[in-house]
Amino acid sequence: MTNDQFAAKLQQLYPKVTDIDIAFCPYRVCPLGAHVDHQHGLVSGFAIDRGIRVAYAPTDNGVIEINSLNFEGRPQFHLGAVPRKQNDWADHLRGATIALHKLAATKKQELTRGVYALIEGQLPIGGLSSSAAVIIAYLTALCRANDFTLTQSEMIETALWAENEYVGVNVGRLDQSCEVYSKKDHLLFLDTLDNSFELIPKSPRAKPFEFAIFFSGVERTLVGSAFNMRVDELKAAAYALKGFSGMQYGKFSEAYLRDVPREIFEAHRSRLPENWHKRAAHFYSEIDRVQRGAEAWRAGDIEALGKLSLESGNSSIVNYETGSAELKAIYEIMLDTDGIYGGRFSGAGFKGCCMALIDPAFEDSIREQVTRRYLQQFPQYEGKFSVHYCQSADGCVF
Does CATH place domain 3-199 in 3.30.310.50? Predict the structure, then answer.
């Protein structure tokens, strides 16, 4: 569907509106840096050329009305009276509205215009940071409607507040940063301790590559899953290690493994409960993989980056203990499929999809082999399992 056709769908819903525009935010993939951003770790990622589109028209009365091509319902609220969390798909947007109001107030500006909006996700939901992409695309629309400008860091912080404080998911800033900072054919290498980042260009020595997205057919949500529990386990490990080693530990909420040197973990790892030990082992090994992966990309060694991504996937299964049966099956299939450099779960890894770095020359055989082998194990997902090929892309323009 073209942008004009998409805008026409909004016009059908609201025949009297004028000044229809389109906001877009790309999805992201993360070959390395899984489950460490909320501990101030190192992460890497790319934006891809699929994402969330929002067709919108400003409203002068401050009313916000949201439609979706992917979900049922038409949530409505007033810009100045956002309701409490409703536990539906629009909570991310309610939270984003509150966050933007707070930011505008600090700048002594007022938001007065709402939007009639239609939202579409270009790939199946689950594992591509769709929640962050929805928030950023929506914020882009609301900001444009109100002639309100955000910096890149303000967009990231506003979107993050909506997920952390309103929706209640303890995500870090990987998703938002990839969707804002990324540049086509560059690897985003981000330090979430101080938010410094480098965009590493593709080496002329690198082999051809693109991304494959294998959607399991199972949608997922972070709220209510084991996601927040894993975050707490990492914090608990950090808090305990600080206590064991004599480090000052302060508040539990301010405990991050990035503040604990690896040698302290090695010295006291046997004293940790098994689950805390395994989560911390994933954190420290993943930090190492991100650093080595950045250097592999810099050198144009796609195979090495892919191998590290597979190692990350294994650590997510063994040490971080995520992955539905469906995603684990896709991961195992990827291990011996020709043309796949490497890959792992995409996103939290509880349902959703897997991503892979692949050689574009193997598109057809990869699609056939992965689909056939997966559906042999899970025939109930016939018609729901899907394979998508994507390119790297620039981040959101707002």
Answer: no
